[in-house]
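Researcher: Structure prediction, please.
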Amino acid sequence: MPWLRWVEAYGLLLVTVGIIIFFSFYGPTSQTFPTMANFQIVLAGQSVLAVVALGTLIPLTADVWDLSIGAIAGLAAVFGAAFMSSGMSAPLAILAAIGVAGIVGVVNALISTKGGVHPVITTMGTSTIVAGVVTQKTGGLAIVSNLPAWLVELGHHTTFGIPALAVIATVVALFAYYLLNHTPFGRYLYAIGSNPNAAPLVGIRTGKLISIAFILGACFAGVAGIMQVAYAGGASTNIGTNLALTGMAASFLSAAAIKPGKYNVPGAVVALIFLAALNSGLNLAGVPPFVNEYVNGAALIVGIGFASNIGRLRERSGS
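Model: Predicted structure follows.
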């Protein structure tokens, strides 16, 4: 039914608009939520999460769950900050940090495609190992010294009211959108995700493509890690944990927006705005912090559940 398809595609967007309107007029938040200052703070913070979500989304289009993206972002942040603190030039340190992230992607790819270990188990294991590496590298202390002033300034710079980090995230999102929707690589990933058994029968090299998806996702996470260093002015040991859940929730929720049943970049953006508006509004309303954790966890469950059951819902509706 056309109306059901429309609700599936734009329901989350309408809910997001409703949340924004509600907190803009709700008494305790009406003076703080609809302000440029809050907009800039939320947009800058969500920019890092957006790139993490896109890093998760790349392999997810092939129905490959990479649970290590948040941890890899934390690893890149720590190594990038450590390289710069030790005197390495910032451009070289940034490339090296993204390279470290890419190496983890290569490891994930080899274990999953060559070793035959399920991606969920593989990435759960590597994320735990990465957390150990981060703890060993930092000794449990944040790295904040000797960072380039321009990088820290970039994390809070705005142009016409738009944070610089949001511009970077937009460029990454446009690249991901083009990659997934306008290249053979993206179409093949979606084909693998749609029917992994049939894909090899039509000549799609699933192992190679999934490996590239793992590596690309990890490199996206590396970019997010450097963005987080710029935003926070340093790298702490718990960066990966803080980024992982919300980024994953947005990537899974993308299947509930714009292109229902299909993980997609515009849907991930809508999901991020939804989570950002809801979390920001709750914070400004004085809700205890643990409520945000409930919200993000519930969003992840709903996103996975929706993506898993959308096909059955369509069949039952007769559409």
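Model: The chain has one domain: 2-317.
Researcher: Thanks, that helps.
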